[in-house]
Amino acid sequence: MEGSRSNIVLIGMPGAGKSTVGVVVAKLLAMDFVDTDVLIQAREKRTLQAIIRAEGLSALKQVEEQTLLELAVEQTVIATGGSAVYSDAAMAALKRRGIAVFLDVPLPELVERLNDLDARGVVMEPGESLTDLYRKRLPLYQRHANLRLDCGGKSAGQVALETVAAVRPLLASAAS
Predict the structure, then answer these.
(1) What is the rounded CA–CA span in Å between residue 82 and residue 94?
(2) Is 156:20 a contact under the CB 8 Å cutoff?
(3) 15, 96, 107, 166: most buried, per Cβ within 10 A?
(4) Does residue 10 carry a pLDDT above 60?
(5) Cα–Cα distance measured from residue 58 to residue 51, given in angstroms and rounded to the nearest whole number
(6) H or E stretch including 32?
(7) Among candidates 130, 138, 99, 121, which has minimal Cα distance to 55?
(8) What is the Cβ-side half-sphere exposure of residue 40, based on CA atoms within 13 angstroms?
(9) Please, which residues bridge with residue 35 across strands?
(10) What are the start-end ranges of the E strands in 111-155?
(11) Per-residue pLDDT tens over the stretch 139-172
(12) CB atoms < 10 A from the CB of 132, how many?
């Protein structure tokens, strides 16, 4: 099945629930699961925030891009870091093997969920607010997504079920 679009690639803002939803989707579809932030941390043997502190935002973006370009998996739910969409090359590579699903959470909900931005290793310029980041990234998520799911006011379980319902026909057509 080399080159087939058998993966589900979750994209969206920090706090959108990509990792939480991804695990549930993987269980529901009997697929593997990978969190690319965890892959980056394992590869670098340090946290995302430690990379940013030591080498800056561009270093983290570069490591993230390389990790995504080298990711060679099939039949896997991939939870990307929120900044994955900054790399057109990485997103193109992910979409060659998968269906990109944008978990679209309204900004007010993200603000409620994210009280640990500093510890998360979020790719944000100094002085940039969550609102600024949202406005900058929203067009990138929309551009790179094959599907957009409105996640406003929904539990991770609800979003996972909607994701499965939305991608199942696409995975079936990609396999044939």
Answers:
(1) 14
(2) yes
(3) 15
(4) yes
(5) 10
(6) strand 32-35
(7) 121
(8) 26
(9) 79
(10) 147-150
(11) 999 999 999 999 999 999 999 999 999 999 888 7
(12) 12
- Spatial strand order of the sheet with 147-150 comes to 32-35, 76-79, 7-11, 98-104, 147-150
Residue type, 138: L
Above 60 in pLDDT, residue 81?
yes
The residue with tokens 């959108």 is 16
Tokens of 94: 């992910």
**Which residue did the predictor score with more confidence, 52 or 33?**
33
Cβ burial, residue 71 (10 Å; 0-12/13-18/19+): buried
Question: What residues are paired with 77 via a beta bridge?
Answer: 8, 33
* Rounded Cα gap, residues 138 and 46, in angstroms: 28
Predicted model pTM: 0.92
Residue type, 135: R
Q: Dihedral, CA atoms, 88, 19, 145, 148, nearest 10 degrees?
A: -160
- Rounded (10°) angle between helices 36-44 and 48-55: 60
Whose tokens are 């570069």? That residue is 62
- What is the spatial distance between Cα 21 and Cα 99, in angstroms, rounded to a whole number? 15
Report the distance separating Cα 43 and Cα 66, nearest Å. 11
**If you average pLDDT over every residue of the chain, what do you get?**
90
